[in-house]
Amino acid sequence: MKRLFAIVLVMILIVSMCACNDLQLPNNDSKQSQSENNQQTPNEEVCEHIWDDGIEVEGGTDAYLMEYTCTVCGEKEQYIITIIPPYPITENDIVNKVYVYEKEGFCGDCTIEIKANGTFTYYEGMLSSHIGSGEWTYTDTDRMLTLFEKMVRLDENGNWEQFTQSYSFLVEEDTLIFVNKESDNGLGNFLYVKVKDGEKFFAR
Ligand SMILES: [Zn+2]
């Protein structure tokens, strides 16, 4: 991770150096720019620094200090690099909780229960006889919880066909935030309660 930061930083540095070397005076008045050119020292050379991979000068838990050396002229640059910790939410923080939709369900609360055995159930309210159920997945890196529900519907020939409906949520502490574009909206999301992008379910 640190190495990646370093490489990115070096690349930014090289790009910015290139940008500096490309800077030129505005050439609106040709006479003036000519006289300015004459005043410049002809032998002045600008090193197009090529930075090494850098060494860690000083470590730390929140940040560390890196020193980079130009492999051409030996110039040194130091940078403080801040360590961004991964968002500290794991599966264990999500499971064994009932999340309640912030708005009114289909008469009463719309709730989702995330179970530790990898399954979930949801109820949309007292007027809905549908109990949604299926399996869920969670990825730590993008904090995305996705519920997969196997459902049936009539196809165009009047036959029942199975399909999978999915619901995606960005996970924050004790909160599920609905992500519409990551959900498979075969039904326009839940059966009766139509949850909008960014709407929340709070752990009870
Ligand atoms: Zn240099």
Summarize the structure.
The protein has helices spanning 2-22, 30-39, 91-94; strands at 55-58, 63-69, 76-82, 97-101, 111-114, 119-123, 131-139, 144-154, 160-172, 175-178, 200-203. It is of the alpha+beta class and 204 residues long. Bound molecules: zinc ion (ZN).
Beta-strand proportion: 35-45%
How confident overall, as mean pLDDT? 79
Structural class: alpha+beta
Oligomer: single chain
How many strands, what sense, and barrel or not for the largest sheet? 8 strands, antiparallel, barrel
Q: What's the count of strands?
A: 11
Q: Can you name the CATH architecture of the largest domain?
A: Beta Barrel
List the ligand species.
zinc ion
User: Which descriptor suits the 3D outline?
Assistant: elongated
Instruction: Extract low-pLDDT stretches.
Output: 1-43
Strand order of the largest sheet: 4-5-6-7-8-9-10-11
Q: Kindly provide the radius of gyration, computed on alpha-carbon positions and rounded to a whole number of angstroms.
A: 29 Å
CATH topology of the largest domain: Lipocalin
| Order of helical and strand elements | HHEEEHEEEEEEEE
Structure description:
The longest helix is centred in the first third of the chain and has 21 residues. By secondary structure, the protein is α+β, with helices and mostly antiparallel strands. It has two domains: 37 residues, no CATH class; 113 residues, Beta Barrel (Lipocalin), CATH 2.40.128. The two termini are 37 Å apart. 17% of the residues lie in helices and 36% in strands.
